[in-house]
Amino acid sequence: xxxxxxxxxxxxxSALVRVLSANAFDxxxxxxxxxxxxxxxxxxxxxxxxxxxxxxxxxxxxxxHTRLVTHNGPIDEQREGSVNPVQVAVGGAVLFVMGVQExxxx
Length: 106
Fold this sequence. Notes:
Layout: E1 2-9, H1 10-22, E2 26-34, E3 39-48, H2 53-63, E4 66-71, E5 86-91, E6 93-99
Antiparallel strand pairs: 1-3, 1-6, 2-3, 4-5
Helix pairs in contact: 1-2
């Protein structure tokens, strides 16, 4: 058994939860913020058997897309002043796959 933490862009969250639920994956959705743009993202906690891990990864890859956004401010807190707008690729997904020693459901 594995625990997958999937960090995805907010824009993809509803569609991915819908796809995973339709395919009998149990999903817990957590609101989170991160990345150098301080943009909202969503972290999904998904318990999955070893046999279904590749299927889960396929659904995430097909649903979560990289897109370009225009960023108008400093990229980090260390920079000050005005910065010219830049196109930045955001989105996709980052998956953390961890082994589960024990799973108990009440």
